[in-house]
Amino acid sequence: MSAAPGDGSPYRAVVGGALDGLHPRLRAYFGAIPVGSLGRGEGVFDVVGTPRRWLWPALWVLGRQGVLFAVWQRDVPFTVINRPIVDAAGRTAVAARGELRRRVGPAAGQRDDRRAAGR
Question: How many other CB atoms are there within 10 angstroms of residue 33's CB atom?
C-alpha cells in the first residue's frame, strides 16, 4: 500500500448512498479524509483487558503486536489517528494508528512510557 491519499471514502465505496442517511457528525467521520489531512480522535476506554489473570500469558504474546493487553484497567485514555491511503489496486482505504496510555506500577497515575500502538 502506498501512503498517497485517495479521492474518496472507502466507507462510501461499500455502503454507497446509505452514508447520506447518517447523522452529520457520522457522515463527516465516515466521509473522505481531505488530501494532506489526518483524522484524529481521542477518548477514554471504560475498561481495557481482562480480570482473568490465567489468560494473561496468551495475551502477552498478542500484546507484543499491539493487539490485546495482559492488563485489567479502567478509564484508559486513547488516541486514534486515521490517514487516507491507496492500495496497489488503486482502492482508497484508511490506515489507523491507535495509542493506549496504560498505567503501570502501584501508583494509579503513573503512565506507561512504552505506549501500546495498534496498526
Answer: 19
Query: Which among 10, 78, 63 has a CA at the least distance from the CA of 1?
Result: 10
Per-residue pLDDT of the chain (119 residues; tens, 9 = 90+): 444 344 578 888 888 888 889 999 888 888 888 777 888 889 999 988 889 989 988 888 887 877 777 888 899 999 988 888 888 888 888 888 888 887 765 433 334 444 444 44
Q: Which three cell numbers stand for residue 2?
A: 502506498
Distance CA(103)–CA(95), nearest Å, equals 26
Contact in structure between 32 and 84 (CB atoms under 8 Å):
yes
DSSP assignment of the chain: -BS---SS-HHHHHHGGGGGGS-HHHHHHHSPPPTT--EEEEEEEEEEE-S-GGGHHHHHHHHTTTS--S-EEEEEEEEEEEEEEE-TTS-EEEEEEEEE--B-SSSTTPBPSS-EEE-
